[in-house]
Amino acid sequence: MLLRMSTLFLRTLREDPADAEVPSHKLLVRGGFVRRAAPGVYTWLPLGKLVLDNIADLVREEMNGIGGQEVLLPALLPREYYEASNRWTEYGDTVFRLQDRKGADYMLGPTHEELFTLLVKGEFTSYKDFPVVLYQIQEKFRDEARPRAGILRGREFHMKDAYSFDIDDAGLQRSYDLHRGAYVRIFDRLGLKYVIVSAMSGSMGGSASEEFLAETEYGEDTFVRSTGSDYAANVEAVRTPAPPHLPVEGLPEAVVHHTPDTPTIQTLVDFLNGAALGREFTAADTLKNVLVKTRRPGEAAWEILGIGLPGDREVDMKRLEAAVYPAEVALLDEADFAAHPYLVKGYVGPNALLANKLRYLVDPRIVEGTVWTTGADQHDHHVVDLVCGRDFTPDGTIEAAEVREGDPSPDGTGTLYTARGIEIGHIFQLGRKFTDTFGLDALGPDGKPKRVTMGSYGIGVSRLVAAVVEQSHDDKGIVWPRSVAPADVHVVGTGKGEQIEVAVRLAEELAAQGVRVLVDDRKGVSPGVKFTDSELLGIPTTVVVGKKLAEGLVELRDRAGGGHSEIALDATVATVAALVKDA
Amino acid sequence: MLLRMSTLFLRTLREDPADAEVPSHKLLVRGGFVRRAAPGVYTWLPLGKLVLDNIADLVREEMNGIGGQEVLLPALLPREYYEASNRWTEYGDTVFRLQDRKGADYMLGPTHEELFTLLVKGEFTSYKDFPVVLYQIQEKFRDEARPRAGILRGREFHMKDAYSFDIDDAGLQRSYDLHRGAYVRIFDRLGLKYVIVSAMSGSMGGSASEEFLAETEYGEDTFVRSTGSDYAANVEAVRTPAPPHLPVEGLPEAVVHHTPDTPTIQTLVDFLNGAALGREFTAADTLKNVLVKTRRPGEAAWEILGIGLPGDREVDMKRLEAAVYPAEVALLDEADFAAHPYLVKGYVGPNALLANKLRYLVDPRIVEGTVWTTGADQHDHHVVDLVCGRDFTPDGTIEAAEVREGDPSPDGTGTLYTARGIEIGHIFQLGRKFTDTFGLDALGPDGKPKRVTMGSYGIGVSRLVAAVVEQSHDDKGIVWPRSVAPADVHVVGTGKGEQIEVAVRLAEELAAQGVRVLVDDRKGVSPGVKFTDSELLGIPTTVVVGKKLAEGLVELRDRAGGGHSEIALDATVATVAALVKDA
């Protein structure tokens, strides 16, 4: 491959684009890799297309390596299949919807579980046919509310999505592990720094699920890590360690106090500490009861849910949403309180909820034998020394409280701290959610139908272009890893005709050796501009054919390490070809 | 590449799909290359994806060969750019439209002239930057009224679209010629039988334009060819040769006759021949005047158009539409006749039209000195011996009359006959239609802006898969040309374990030589089924490891030629590798 800058469809920019905030967005636009076409919608210019293709090929290679078979599904997805899985409704505003000329509804595919399930159902019928792994590399569409950061979060983007089909759970685990291994190899080959975090599966349903997050300060995914171990997890997936149960014997009786004008935790704590009750109260001693309502998909009625958590913690809505998924969550309105007059705003306690058969779930820290100050279910009253397991018994636990830096790590080693990353891959054990919907069975060896179980595995191919740049750049430009660079070598001819002629000859000889070459053969462009462009474009190796040509020397530059060295012109092709081959 | 049928995601079908009418549709579904996902929307299964990729790579190679640079534009196209070119309106029902969550309008890209023009305008500014050829291979969307014939006419399909930008007409001609040459090489390498026909450019506007049509009886494009030359053209593009003008001197006076109850050509001819006028009349002696109305884009008012043509010919609506494009055409209704009482239904002549300043265009055969019988603009009256150029002078000519088998070829050699084909490529000299819309200028050497001129060039990549099958199949299945076949060799192991083991070993050895291999390693499948599948799938070369294995022999089969031969097992890898390499 030989690209000539004299004719290449490329104009680099000296200024950052006005709408760009993150390095990858700035550099990919300035380097002429992408151009914005509409909000969250980008055009790939020649160099950008090469990078995108390199990443896609690398992904393809590893997917083929685990026996994945490449197919290609349409972007236009008929409504009926998504009605069956209820995702036509669940997706809400996040997908693009359209009608054809006959009024039939379609969505533009954001992910393809439904069609893959139907595809396999159409072809495979026997347990002997399984396992099978199918994948595609395809443009996807999501109507993001706030497309941002260039190609990091676009509305039209490239994904590799794979789906595994197995006849039993052990098979699914094997398929899952194969994908996990392939993903590790892919991200390692891309030279990325990443963590694998436990994840909730969001709208995908299902059980085991991990995310691959490329670590970067501009990532929009927050995750937590342990100071003392490899533990890393999405905030939604953090499981709060429950303290040991305590004996309830000998604990003082619960007593209701008149606590005028104390509807908030702070006013309550201040009142109690001013009331000379013989001990000091903190927010952590109080039991805050947050009321929400939830509604399961397809149902009309909302159900009230009381959530009890220590008074020094807030409810994290994303954790709450993940905990109740696939039900949706809303706050109570005045009508709800009017319909349930025993719920006294600001003074709700466990017992009014439990006595009225409303669902009451508590933070895992609230275990038997813990002692709480909480609402007494009447205005201006709280109860002190209410004991869990003695005075009230919750319906269960829920992971809805915020996770804080310094919280103990769920694996028992170290404490948690927060980091940011870009989601580059996601693997799910979907289980039978979609195969149940569409009745995908395989005839077992005993002649009986067996429900197939399924995994789904995504990689953000276009997002990876940005993730690589986020992790691999300096103040001068991009530093492409060789595995994805648009070329191996950038031959820069500076100055007058002869140097450019030699640069072109070198480039042609290198290309003949199978090296992918970009040659700067532009005339009338200063060496300074050429070097600036070269650093911005970030090709791993640069060969400068400049003033020393008269002495038979060219300069070799290493973009990543910054090293320079002079080598004999005659030795250049062999040296560079060997360097590329060994890399 | 080594594909194993024991694990391949492939189930062939013995029956034609119920909705399939054309061979390519039947065979691509039966062979497990594609599956229908929605009307006109298809999924590509592993073997189909390989064929599609092979064709795309071949197209890519030839496009790169003429200096084309590959980019990738989005499918989501914002309305504003298409408003500017008026195509937001012109496309009518033929595109998919949608709104994002903010209510902004988009269409799914059917073709990308607007965005390419803007893209080039954003980067290139000087005459030194040109010419440039950009292309993409991408999924396109069109909301066909009647999607049909499988992937031949789908609603989501793959196209290569290229755009050339030049600073002058000579440059555009060079870019056009380069594309024409590349297209010839592409279709030749695909082994297609095709013709290049002059074409009207339809909604693309512009001037010079040719279509590449793959000849097949199931093609939906009709074109005409000459019996005596290479002339071929779309019916819309046929230019009727005009006869020489004749002297008007000495021709008899025009006479109005009472011709009661003769509103049609046939009743008129019958009446005249019964009226003892001293000569025999035929339909070809009469001048039929057809009234339509046209409306230019963006205008509210319709304009009446009279079309004069020999009475033995009908108006061909597609030719008429192409002739008046971009105006639209409609028939007159009662209100139009009421508003123009001098237009006497069934008896319209040239003179009422011309006297009332209505536009009157005639078939090119109606030249000065030709003598006609036509309507006299009063009920039950016709005029005989009305002479063109003496008694009426039309406003010009129009190509609206039907083209018939036996018409003289426009190039003067032979006569025309009708054939059918599939449009596989289309090249246009667009000129400045889009560069005018978006003001794409290049600064000339004189420092003055020069309007850039543009070409656009399409190849239906997914349609080519079907076109190849249409031309290359027999009653047993597909016969893939090696250039696009999903594999070079199909190794079929029949019978018991040992034959399959040897087949797999052969396949692995061939794959190690760089041969693309599909091996039938299925156990418990009869040789008959395997042979039937092999013929259906249509891999160019088959190696059968069967009963003769005991004698150290395997069988070599040529799918296209049908030849069989036995060769020594030991020589198989070398023989087949050489055969593939030489092809």
Structural account:
The structure is a homodimer of 583-residue chains. By secondary structure, the first copy, chain A, is α+β, with helices and mostly antiparallel strands. Chain A folds into three domains: 50-238 and 417-470, Bira Bifunctional Protein, Domain 2 (BirA Bifunctional Protein, domain 2), CATH 3.30.930.10; 255-397, YbaK protein, CATH 3.90.960; 487-582, Anticodon-binding domain (Rossmann fold, 3-Layer(aba) Sandwich), CATH 3.40.50. In chain A, β28 (489-493), α13 (497-512) and β29 (517-520) form a beta-alpha-beta unit. The radius of gyration of chain A is 30 Å and the shape is elongated.
| CATH secondary-structure class of the largest domain in chain A | Alpha Beta
CATH homologous superfamily placement of the largest domain in chain A: Bira Bifunctional Protein, Domain 2
CATH topology of the largest domain in chain A: BirA Bifunctional Protein, domain 2
Helix content of chain A: 25-40%
- Rg of Cα set of chain A: 30 Å
Q: State the major sheet of chain A.
A: 9 strands, mixed
Could you say what the CATH architecture of the largest domain in chain A is?
A: 2-Layer Sandwich
List the quaternary state of the chains. homodimer
Q: Could you give the distance between the termini of chain A?
A: 18 Å
Number of domains of chain A: 3
Mean pLDDT metric of chain A: 93
Structural class of chain A: alpha+beta
Measured by DSSP, the beta-strand proportion of chain A falls in 25-35%
Number of helices of chain A: 15
Q: Biggest chain pair contact, residues each?
A: A-B, 49 and 49 residues
